[in-house]
Each structure stands twice: as C-alpha cells, then as structure tokens.
Amino acid sequence: MRDAYHEELDSIGDGLVEMARLVGSAIGRATTAILDSDLKLAEAVIEADQKVDDLQHELEARAITLLARQQPVATDLRIVVTSLRMSADLERSGDLAQHVAKLARLRYPERAVPHDLHATILEMGQLAQRLMAKAAEVIITKDVDLALQLEQDDDAMDLLHRALFQHLMDDRWKHGIETAVDVTLLGRYYERYADHAVAVAKRVVYLVTGEHPDDLQSDIQPATQVEGA
C-alpha cells in the first residue's frame, strides 16, 4: 500500500516535469511565431496549451486523492501541497506563452515586433526557455544550489525588460501607439514567465529544506561574512 502511495507521489513529480517541458517548448515556439509572423505555429502553440491545462487538472486530482486517502504528514504533506502550487505556476507560464502566440495571431500578417527590437525579444524568449529548462532540472534533481541560482539568472530578464522600456520611451520611437502597446505586453509576458520559473525553483527549495528561500539565503549570508572577516 505504501509502495503504491510513494509511486503516486513520484507520478506527481513526473507530471510537474512534463508540464515544465511543455511550457518551455511553448515559449520558444511562441517567440518564433511572434518574430516570424507565423500563423500556423501560433495556432499550434495556442492549441497545445490545453494539454498543459489537462495535466494540471490531473495532477490536482491525484494530489487531492492522496490528501483524502493517505492523510500525509510532515515531508510528504509538504510535497503534495508544494506540488499543487508549482503546478499553478507552470499552468500560468503556459498561459503566458499562449498570450504571446495570440498576439502573433492577432497581428498576422503584420509583425507585432519592429525589426529594431527583434534581437531583444528573441533574447527574452531564449532566456525564458532556459530558465524553465533549469526549473525542470531543479524539480528532477532537488538541487537547492541550482534552485537558488535561478533568481540571479532572472536578473538578466529584468535588465532586458528595462531596456525594452527605454527603447519605447525614446523620443525617436517611430512605430506608433499600437506597436508600443504590443511590445509593452510582450515584455510583461516574458518577465512574468521568468518570475514563475523562479517561483517553481523557490518552491523546490522549500520542499527540500522546509525553509523559504529568502530565509535560507539570509541565514547563509552572515556565515559568509564571518568567514571573510
């Protein structure tokens, strides 16, 4: 009975990894769709988001069944509750990738992103995909150090987001209000996507240690300062 119970716990983790891989692929393909004005690809990304939603619903059902039948305590309870929260982060990440694809579809056959911002949006899309790939690795390995690195990696997305706004606020902006709105939305989608990847990693830290990452880092810093004194 307990073997079946732990197999069910493992299957929840497997479902989270699958969700992370799907939403990682989605943001990469959505980025290509928005930059290339690829309607077929945009439609494929939009349609594929249903699989992410289905996986989340299946994972929630499994978790609720475990809570009801097994009444897990301590670490096992933390795994179930944290997994539910991670699934919500991943589902929202899929929605954000879908938003990018929907914008590509809305503007087709025109391009939503002006040529002078292609490189920035491409970099944001690639970074978002890398962050989610690392989040998936964290779910698999339960590597706390790797999880904590994600927040530092996310700083690069914040810098790209700021650079995007600086471009929009430049007096030389010549692409009109509609494009400015589109680019603003895109920047927000990528920034929030990255935030969700970081949130997933932080939840793994809590799952493994029982401590919130901010508390863990504050405990580490004084020790580091003493060593360097």
UniProtKB/TrEMBL annotation:
Protein's UniProt name: Phosphate-specific transport system accessory protein PhoU
Primary localization class, coarse: cytoplasm
Role summary: Plays a role in the regulation of phosphate uptake.
Quaternary structure (record): Homodimer.
Domain PhoU: 16-103, 121-204
Key words of the record: Cytoplasm, Phosphate transport, Transport
Entry superkingdom: Bacteria
InterPro entries xrefs: PhoU (IPR028366), PhoU-like_sf (IPR038078), PhoU_dom (IPR026022)
Localization terms from the record: Cytoplasm
Keyword Cytoplasm listed: yes
SUPFAM superfamilies found in the cross-reference section: PhoU-like
Family: Belongs to the PhoU family.
